Amino acid sequence: MRPGARLQAAIELLDQIIAAAREAGAAADTLIARYFTDRRYAGAKDRRAVRELVYAAIRHAGERPVSGRAAMLGLVQDDAELAVLFDGTPHAPAPITTGEPVAAAGVAPAWLTALLAEAGIVGEALAALVARAPLDLRVNPARASAADVVAAFPGAALLAGLPHAVRAAHGTPVEQHPLWAAGAIEIQDAGSQTVSLAAAAAPGQTIIDLCAGAGGKTLALAAAMAGRGRLIACDIDRARLSRLAPRAARAGATGIETRLLDPGKEAAALADLDARADTVLIDAPCSGTGTWRRNPEARWRLTPARLERLMATQTALLDIGAALVRPGGALVYIVCSLLDAEGRAPIADWLARHPGWSAEPLHLPRGMAHGPGVRLTPSRDSTDGFFVARLRAPC
C-alpha cells in the first residue's frame, strides 16, 4: 500500500470506530482486525502503519469527532508530511479544503474533564491518561519465576514490589512464546496485579470473585491460594466467563468454580454462600477512565446517563457482596476508574449507611491513600488507573 492508501484506510477505519462508539458497537481492535481480514493484500507493515495512524488520531481527539476524516485532519495540524498525502490520487484522501471539520486536540470530552479535575486529575496526570501503555506480564509462580521470564524476553525488567510482575518491551510477541503456551505468563497490567493484592488471598480461604469477567484477577487469586480452598468466579456475561476455563487449564489453576448469574437475580443464585466467604472481591463495571491508554476510544463511548447506570450497578454490587462476607471477613472493591464518583465517594457513602463496617488501611507496592482506599494513576505509578478499598465486616 502507498502512504496515501494507508492514510485513506485509517480514515475508513476511524469512520467505523466513531460510529461504533456512538452506537455501542464493537471495540476498535475488533474493527481493525475485521477490516484487514477482508483486505489480505495488506502486508504486515501496512497493517502496522494503518493501526498506528488510527490510534494516533484517536488519542489526539478528546471529543468524539464527526468523521474519520475530521479525526485525521486533527493530526495534520502538527504534521506537514501527513498533509501532503491528501492529494486526491487513486486510493488516497481527497485534497484538504478550507472550512472542513477538524477534530480538536484534547484528553476527554469536556464533561469528563471536569469530573476528573474534581478528583484531582489535571495537568500531567490528565495527559498521561492517553499515553501509550506498557506491556506487563504476570508470572505464574507454579510454572516459572520472574527471573526466568526476564531472561526469556529481551528488554524485559522486574517491577519493584510485585514479585510476579515483569514489564516487557513494546512489540514483544508474548502469545507466540513457549512460556505463554506453558501457562507461565499472562498479560496483566501492573496496576491490576497491585489491586489484586488487596484481597490478601491465601490457601484454605473461601473467596468469591463476584465480577470475574474473563478471569484475570481470578487467576491471580488462584495462584495465591495454591489450589487449596474454594474460589468461586461469577459473572453475568457468558462469553467472557467462558474464557476462564481454558485460561485456568493452561495455567494449571485448580479449584475454581464458575457461576453464570442472571442480572437482577444474583443474590438468589448465591444464597448458599451467604455469610460464608472470607473475602468477596468486586471488580465492578465502571467508566474505565483508568484504562484509556489501552482503549482510548472508550472516552467517546461514555455518556452521563451511562455513568449514572454504572454507579447504580456499583452500589448494588456492594450490597450483594456484603451479604456473602462472613462475620469479620473482607469486601474488596475495585474500579479501573479515576472518577471519585465511582471510587472514593460511593465507598464513603456505603460505609456511612452500614454501621459496623470499616475501611482497612492498605499497604500496596503502588498507589497513594485516597479517602477510604488507595488510588493508582498512570502518571505517578506507571500503571492503569485504579481505586481499591478493603472493607472489614463486623464480627
Describe the structure.
- By secondary structure, this protein is an alpha/beta fold.
- The chain is built from 18 helices and 13 strands.
- It has helices at residues 3-23, 28-37, 44-60, 68-76, 80-83, 110-118, 123-127, 146-152, 178-181, 190-196, 216-225, 238-242, 244-251, 266-269, 298-301, 304-324, 344-353, 378-381, and strands at residues 135-139, 157-159, 162-168, 185-187, 206-209, 230-235, 256-260, 277-283, 325-335, 358-360, 368-370, 373-376, 386-392.
- The strands form 2 sheets. Strands 5, 6, 7, 8, 9, 10, 11, 12 and 13 form a 9-stranded mixed β-sheet that branches.
- Helix 1 (3-23) crosses helix 3, helix 1 (3-23) packs across helix 4 (68-76) and helix 3 (44-60) crosses helix 4.
- The chain is globular, with a radius of gyration of 22 Å.
| Shape call | globular
Biggest sheet overview: 9 strands, mixed
Instruction: Compute the number of strand runs.
Output: 13
Rg: 22 Å
Assembly type of the chains comes to single chain
Give the terminus-to-terminus CA distance: 67 Å
Query: How helix-rich are the residues, as a percent range?
Result: 40-55%
Question: What does the average pLDDT come to?
Answer: 95
Beta-strand content bin:
15-25%
The helix-and-strand class reads: alpha/beta
Q: Enumerate how many helices there are, as a single number.
A: 18
Low-confidence stretches: none
Would you summarize the structure shown here?
The protein has helices spanning 3-23, 28-37, 44-60, 68-76, 80-83, 110-118, 123-127, 146-152, 178-181, 190-196, 216-225, 238-242, 244-251, 266-269, 298-301, 304-324, 344-353, 378-381, and strands at 135-139, 157-159, 162-168, 185-187, 206-209, 230-235, 256-260, 277-283, 325-335, 358-360, 368-370, 373-376, 386-392. With 395 residues, it is of the alpha/beta class. The strands form two sheets. Strands 5, 6, 7, 8, 9, 10, 11, 12 and 13 form a nine-stranded mixed β-sheet that branches.
